[in-house]
Specification:
CATH architecture: 4-Layer Sandwich
Keywords: Signal
Distance between the termini: 22 Å
Shape: globular
Bound molecules: zinc ion
Order of helices and strands: HHEEEHEHHEHEEEHEEHEHEHEEE
Number of helices: 10
Pfam families: Lactamase_B
Number of domains: 1
Organism: Candidatus Alectryocaccomicrobium excrementavium
CATH class: Alpha Beta
Largest sheet: 8 strands, mixed
Radius of gyration: 17 Å
CATH topology: Metallo-beta-lactamase, Chain A
Number of strands: 15
Helix content: 25-40%
Protein name: MBL fold metallo-hydrolase
Length: 280
Amino acid sequence: MPFKRSCGFPARACALMLALLLFASGALAEPGTLEVAFLNAGKADAFVLLTENSAVVIDTGENSMGDALVDFLLERGVSRVDALFITHFDKDHVGGADALLAALPVSAVYESACEKDNKQTRQYREALEDQGLTPIALQENMALEIDGVQYAISVTNLLCTGKNASNDSSLVIRVQHGQTRFLFAGDAENDRLAELLREGGLACDVLKVPHHGSYESLSSAFFQAASPTYAVITSDEEHPEDETVLHILSSLGTTVYLTRLGDVFCLSDGETLEFSQASA
Ligand SMILES: [Zn+2]
């Protein structure tokens, strides 16, 4: 469903109209498609992946994002989340998880094995307990398939100590739908980027740029290895992405979307990708 070309209304209105149509049919997305929503959550990550019969959430934004994330899911007719991934425990990734867990049943929760003690993580743990859920702290790479979409999750072998340990513990998630490939790089900083470059298999069509668009000395090598057609950056006005990051991506011919300008929607039919953006 090419939102922009066939709908003729602003992207958000088209997404809502599609949602209402699908809601009536009981499907979360058109059969055979994968819709990825990169929500405008400020300098924070909150992503929803929908197929006809599945809903997956990667990170949940700040605490204040929880209700908006739940509203988005309910608006799209989601009554169960098949998988929730918490890439790491910084408040801009785990913050909204307690609201999500309280509002909707979640079949499986996968999290970084590098524990962190902060208020948002404690609230997340309480919400898990309230729901009787045991999260799976990933110690090694894992792959799973959900409604025809392949998820390959890469874990770090770095130690859970040091200045950037939390960011560098980010689960990195490769998503493949037919021929289209997405790479969600969490908040990976230099050491994790080095690890990912050694691991390989970074080529993708859509890159969720690591760490809100912060520049690292390995950024250039990483972007070249990924060579994405599209990139999504989750920065905000106060903490914008680095100009150098934009410059490198532009030199690779990558089209960049900033979630601070509005929710970004990407629709895959397994072969081609269609992007649209809501106004902020
Ligand atoms: Zn972050």
